[in-house]
């Protein structure tokens, strides 16, 4: 069986995600689609809108055949490491190709950019270093250095766009891994990554959908932009938790964690650098809600996304030393499967190059224990009384 892999968050699953999965299957000629999906915390440093099991069910209902979990250490990482984890898992499970949505829409500019930056690696790193010394943020330094090398020529990928950036890192990760998977991209349609909902369009960004809900729209009012099954599952999640995941929801616990730890402990958490622990601590003393807090901490040097990743690690207790202890994924964690996915696993099981884990009880190594802990902390933030849900929820099967 021929498989195409996609790397996703589904926060929540919407019509654009369904289009991506359908086009990935078509463009690759694959028999099934395998999704590596982030768990309870996401790459932009946020708690997921709803839990990984609801999002897995959304994916299966919309035609995804296998859903496996991207471990916390990669799901909450900056783009290059996020890509590294996702590509490693798709390669381990035997995908023939991987496909990502992009603003670029064609693969050749990405291949050209990868070749250029590989050949100019030393020069590129020096440009980045010099740019950072001027006081700009790391993402801005990357972009400026890249433009210096490419001169905005159209045969290179536009790495100012969020999906293009991730796509480039997918190709880079595959090259570094020595993977034989074929890279594919499809044109992203509808709303851009950060766009608010635009009335009348059937495809909105996940950011726009979450924003609309938190501004007062009901789940039913989002039905234009999401499959019917996704709407039903959001209603089920609302009944179970009485809330959806956000930093505003988690802020009382986050604030307590920051104030209890103090600057001396905060500086040991992953991604906390350059003395920002003092500002984080003082801001938590002052701000009684998350938006007030983040407005006190963010700056040109520290973007909102970068700060949110720090806060995620502070909240979960993930330290620099823990981060540095991980090199690559150590298992494939199965979250859900269709009939075709089940058949694929039975057919490919002996060729999967990492242990296939279907029960939380088998997540015995440090990476697995971290995933279990992250789920516990997520459920606590959501006000759940079922903190052992990781152990009581089997892989979801959609026959």
Key words describing this protein structure:
18 helices; 399 residues; alpha/beta; Rossmann fold; globular
What fraction strand? 5-15%
How many structural units, i.e. domains? Answer: 2
Briefly note the CATH topology name of the largest domain. Rossmann fold
The number of distinct β-strands equals: 8
The main β sheet shows up as: 8 strands, mixed
Mean pLDDT across the residues is 93
Class based on secondary structure composition and strand pairing: alpha/beta
CATH class type of the largest domain: Alpha Beta
Backbone CA Rg: 20 Å
How many helices in DSSP terms?
A: 18
Low-confidence blocks of residues: none
Distance between the termini: 18 Å
Give the ordered list of helices and strands. EHEHEHHEHHHHEHHHHHHHEHEHHE
Q: Which range best describes the helical content: under 10%, 10-25%, 25-40%, 40-55%, 55-70% or over 70%? A: 40-55%
* Overall 3D form: globular
CATH architecture of the largest domain: 3-Layer(aba) Sandwich
């Amino acid at each position: 069986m021929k498989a195409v892999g996609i790397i996703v968050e589904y926060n929540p699953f919407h019509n654009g995600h369904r289009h991506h999965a359908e086009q990935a299957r078509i463009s690759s000629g694959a028999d099934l689609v395998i999704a590596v999906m982030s768990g309870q915390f996401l790459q932009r440093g946020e708690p997921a809108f709803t839990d990984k099991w609801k999002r897995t069910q959304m994916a299966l209902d919309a035609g995804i055949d296998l859903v496996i979990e991207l471990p916390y250490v990669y799901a909450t990482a900056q783009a290059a490491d996020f890509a590294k984890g996702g590509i490693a898992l798709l390669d381990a499970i035997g995908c023939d190709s991987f496909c990502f949505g992009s603003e670029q829409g064609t693969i050749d500019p990405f291949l050209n950019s990868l070749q250029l930056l590989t050949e100019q690696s030393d020069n590129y790193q020096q440009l980045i270093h010099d740019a950072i010394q001027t006081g700009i943020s790391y993402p801005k330094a990357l972009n400026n250095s890249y433009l210096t090398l490419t001169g905005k020529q159209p045969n290179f990928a536009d790495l100012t766009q969020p999906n293009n950036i991730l796509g480039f890192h997918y190709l880079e990760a595959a090259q570094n891994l020595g993977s034989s998977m074929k890279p594919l991209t499809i044109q992203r349609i509808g709303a851009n990554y950060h766009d608010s909902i635009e009335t009348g369009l059937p495809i909105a960004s996940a950011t726009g959908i979450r924003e609309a809900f938190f501004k007062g729209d009901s789940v039913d009012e989002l039905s234009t932009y999401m499959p019917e099954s996704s709407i039903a599952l959001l209603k089920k999640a609302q009944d179970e938790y009485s809330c959806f995941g956000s930093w505003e929801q988690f802020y009382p616990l986050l604030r307590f964690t920051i104030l209890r730890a103090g600057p001396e402990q905060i500086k040991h958490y992953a991604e906390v650098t350059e003395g920002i622990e003092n500002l984080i601590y003082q801001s938590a003393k002052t701000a009684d809600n998350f938006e007030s807090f983040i407005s006190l901490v963010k700056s040109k040097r520290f973007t909102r996304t970068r700060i949110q990743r720090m806060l995620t690690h502070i909240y979960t207790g993930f330290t620099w030393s823990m981060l540095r202890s991980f090199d690559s994924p150590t298992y494939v964690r199965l979250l859900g499967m269709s009939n075709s996915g089940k058949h694929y696993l039975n057919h490919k099981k002996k060729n999967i190059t990492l242990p296939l884990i279907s029960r939380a009880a088998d997540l015995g190594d440090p990476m697995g224990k971290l995933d279990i802990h992250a789920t516990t902390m997520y459920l606590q933030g959501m006000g759940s009384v079922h903190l052992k849900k990781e152990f009581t929820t089997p892989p979801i099967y959609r026959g």
